[in-house]
Amino acid sequence: MSTKQKKVVEIRTSPHLKKAISVEQIMRNVVYALLPVCAWSVYQFGISVLALILVTTLTCILTESLFCKLSNRPNSVGDFSIVITGLLLALTLPPGFPLWMAAVAGFVAVGLGKSLFGGLGYNVMNPALVGRAFVQAAFPVAITTWTPGFAAGRFVEFIPSTLALPFMSPVDTSDWVTQKAVDGFTGATPLALQKFEKVTVDSIDLLTGAVAGSAGETSALLIFVCGLYLAFRKMMDWRIPAAIFAGVFIVCMPLNLYNPALFPTPLFMILSGGLMLGAMFMATDMVVSPMTPRGVWLYGLVIGVLTVLIRLFGGLTEGVMYAILVANALSPLIASVSQPRIYGARKEETES
Asked: Considering only CA atoms, which of 198, 216, 195, 218 is closest in space to residue 206?
């Protein structure tokens, strides 16, 4: 007698069609996309930035391993997510940032920004920006001390402040800059020049990276190209940076038309500072950004608008970090109010 084979019907929640790609593969490709930015940063600022990248990345890896062990969770170092945190953190710091402060930033980024919430997939804000925000509050002088790129001897000697001892007075790099004979270096970022001196840096310099700034934010063109790599591979939602740029344009354009001498152009705002790096690699963090179609546009617009408002009307020259952190906090609310209507369901009737 032949027995009929029973067919099992499994009922699961969406999505029913899944792409054959793992978290590790996505994270590895993000690392690949960041490597050219890191390489350019090392070429521009020398071994100080190389040491900065190594310290933040190694600190993040060790901290992740420590907290996984303390919480009896599987070690998640192998998924490359913590490497991304270390790389992004280094790229947001000044080139001559003291290494011991960078280690503090890495520990806080992972411990406070990620492990406290349960590890990968549970953090409510971008961990690298949490670490960066902490050191900005703790070490305001060091975080706003800029050094020139392309200095002579940058591959054989450190920027003096890099090897500063813990809890010592910040190292004055003015003599070092003079010794290196860096012509035209003002010690100010393009955003600071525009905000306090009403001097706008040429767009070509912003695109190529011939400006002062954080280690990985100088070349907007390179960052944009590396972000496109992830977008074409469908490992980054292109709508988020597009919405951020749109938010910048919406606020900047009317102000620039009203008073060009006081308010910069939208292009300057997009290319300067850390906006390009934040838009391409931080705001697009899959864990902390909404997933709804309308939500990603609203999320990006919030970041773009807040960035411009902080830059133009706040006390700080840069506002990308705080704009992204605020948007991260609002992400659950944005996702909730932008949920698409369930297929076949009727809209709720409002009471008269």
From this structure: 218
Asked whether 79 and 31 are in contact (CB, 8 A), the reply is no
Q: Tokens 């900065």 correspond to what residue? A: 52
Torsion angle of the four alpha carbons 187, 188, 190, 196, in this order, in degrees rounded to the nearest 10: -150
pLDDT of residue 1: 47
> In the chain, what is the straight-line distance between the N-terminal and C-terminal CA atoms, in Å?
68
Whether residue 295 is contained in a domain is answered as yes
| Judgement on whether residues 255 and 165 belong to the same structural domain of the protein | no
Nearest to 136 by CA among 172, 104, 181, 184: 104
The span from the CA of 289 to the CA of 301, in Å, is: 12
Give yes or no: residues 212 and 158 share one domain: no
Q: Do 161 and 210 belong to one domain?
A: no
Q: What is the pLDDT of residue 115?
A: 84
In a domain, 230, yes or no: no
Q: Is the model more confident about 239 or about 346? A: 239
The pTM (predicted TM-score) of the whole model is 0.88
The helix or strand, by DSSP H or E, that contains position 261, with its residue range, turns out to be: none
What is the domain count for the chain?
A: 2
Q: Are residues 261 and 314 in the same domain?
A: yes
Same domain for 319 and 262? Answer: yes
d(CA 235, CA 238): 9
**Mean pLDDT calculated for residue range 336-343:** 78
What radius of gyration, in Å, describes the C-alpha atoms of the chain? Answer: 22
Which pair of tokens denotes residue 154? 């940058």
pLDDT tens per residue across span 46-98:
999 999 999 999 999 999 999 888 888 887 788 889 999 999 999 999 999 99
- Range of 297's domain? 188-220+236-337
